């Protein structure tokens, strides 16, 4: 009703006209906190603030309301500018013994309960003894590095999204973790600067999988073990084929992160060929 009465049009993906683009919701299972991200093409603080005020009054468990503004032609809700409308600019979630602050545009697994099983499998495959160095190539808000930090000597994370790197560093401090370091930038640019060869490489890419240049760099590093987390079986198969020149697939475990859908998350263990 509010959208109709605002007199502003919904965004059209073909003509790239219209004001209202997305309404994104995030929920913290541990604290029952909700985040509402109102994504618009243009800036209109008066209208968006009125919507935010209405939502906050009707739903008191909304912890955060933000307005992300983007004129990008893609269908990705990545902000050009972010305005806090209500509450704080994050929600807090708990995974196992760890707490995580999550901002609007940082990646975090949507199914918290299944995520614990997913990360437990990652830890099982990594099989850390306490003296290993771990490298996470798509570290997001730092969930996997922090999850593995208690059992590793040092964990490095690389992430291209600025807000996610900021969140990762905050999350490490929040949990008293001192052996995690996070680097912002494209993997292809950051990876050559890291001179230490890791014992375990964690790969958890977006649906498009790994860029072929990154695959080449991973093959050049030639770490003893790779744990690959994938949300797309097709790109997982493609990437495993490219990695097969120097690695063998030991085991793959599916995790039902998205019940009642055909989507599946997979965890693959790869070991270096002798």
CATH topology of the largest domain: Rossmann fold
Strand percent estimate:
25-35%
Order of helices and strands: HEEHEEEEHEHEHEHEHEHEE
**Unreliable segments (pLDDT under 50, ≥5 consecutive)?**
none
Structural class: alpha/beta
Number of strands: 13
Give the overall average pLDDT: 94
Residues in helices, as a percent range: 25-40%
Within CATH, the superfamily of the largest domain carries the name Vaccinia Virus protein VP39
3D architecture notes:
This protein has helices at 2-6, 45-58, 112-126, 143-149, 162-174, 187-190, 212-221, 233-243, and strands at residues 20-28, 33-40, 62-69, 81-87, 91-95, 98-102, 133-136, 154-159, 180-184, 200-203, 225-230, 247-255, 265-272. The model has no long low-confidence stretch (mean pLDDT 94). By secondary structure, the protein is α/β, with parallel strands linked by helices. The chain has eight helices and 13 strands. The radius of gyration is 20 Å and the shape is globular. It has a seven-stranded mixed sheet with strand order 9-8-7-10-11-13-12, with helices on both faces. A four-stranded mixed sheet has the order 1-2-3-4.
Question: How do the helices and strands line up, and which of them pair or pack?
Answer:
Layout: H1 2-6, E1 20-28, E2 33-40, H2 45-58, E3 62-69, E4 81-87, E5 91-95, E6 98-102, H3 112-126, E7 133-136, H4 143-149, E8 154-159, H5 162-174, E9 180-184, H6 187-190, E10 200-203, H7 212-221, E11 225-230, H8 233-243, E12 247-255, E13 265-272
Parallel strand pairs: 2-3, 7-8, 7-10, 8-9, 10-11
Antiparallel strand pairs: 1-2, 3-4, 5-6, 11-13, 12-13
């Amino acid at each position: 009703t509010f959208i109709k009465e605002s007199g502003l049009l919904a965004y059209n993906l073909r003509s790239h006209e219209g004001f209202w683009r997305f309404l994104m919701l995030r929920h913290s299972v541990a604290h029952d906190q909700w985040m509402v991200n109102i994504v618009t093409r243009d800036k209109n603080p008066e209208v968006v603030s009125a919507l935010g005020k209405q939502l906050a009054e009707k739903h008191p468990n909304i912890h955060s309301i933000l307005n992300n503004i983007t004129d990008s032609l893609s269908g990705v809700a990545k902000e050009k500018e972010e305005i806090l409308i209500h509450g704080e600019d994050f929600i807090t979630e708990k995974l196992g013994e760890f707490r995580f602050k999550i901002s609007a545009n940082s990646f975090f697994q949507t199914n918290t309960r299944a995520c614990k099983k997913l990360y437990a499998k990652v830890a099982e495959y990594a099989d850390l003894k306490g003296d290993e160095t771990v490298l996470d190539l798509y570290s997001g808000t730092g969930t996997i590095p922090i999850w593995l930090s208690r059992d590793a000597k040092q964990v490095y994370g690389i992430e291209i999204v600025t807000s996610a790197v900021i969140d990762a560093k905050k999350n490490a401090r929040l949990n008293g973790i001192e052996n995690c370091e996070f680097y912002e930038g494209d993997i292809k640019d950051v990876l050559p600067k890291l001179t230490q060869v890791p014992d375990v490489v964690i790969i958890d890419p977006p649906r498009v999988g790994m860029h072929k240049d990154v695959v080449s760099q991973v093959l050049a590093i030639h770490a003893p073990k790779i744990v690959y987390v994938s949300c797309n079986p097709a790109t997982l198969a493609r990437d495993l084929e490219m990695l097969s020149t120097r690695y063998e697939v030991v085991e793959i475990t599916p995790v039902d992160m998205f019940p009642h859908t055909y989507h599946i998350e997979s965890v693959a263990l790869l070991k270096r060929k002798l």
